[in-house]
Amino acid sequence: MEKNMKKKGNCLIVYVPRELDHHFAEQVTKEVDAELLRGTVKQLVFDFSDTTFMDSSGIGMLMGRKRLLGYSGGTVSAIHVSDRLKKIMELSGISRYVEISQESVWNKIRR
Asked: What is the pTM assigned to this prediction?
């Protein structure tokens, strides 16, 4: 999983695989939480470029990371989200808490 994450300053980017299911959600939770608990991450970005499927485990993983990062005033974003995944995120209510973009937000990343 670590090869699917990149840190730039206080921003951590997680490259989500093709299917965001229970297996990946468990794995990313463990590894991202370890980074978040160090206290150096202020912006967490999930890149959905390659993702075609997300189930409720993925929704829970996103909301949990938002809650954990929210304690320190950080933000969570989802970029390169397909129309299908965007609809899932909107119906689940994630869009109220996580910035969702179908474009890259690299230019907006805070240092």
From this structure: 0.87
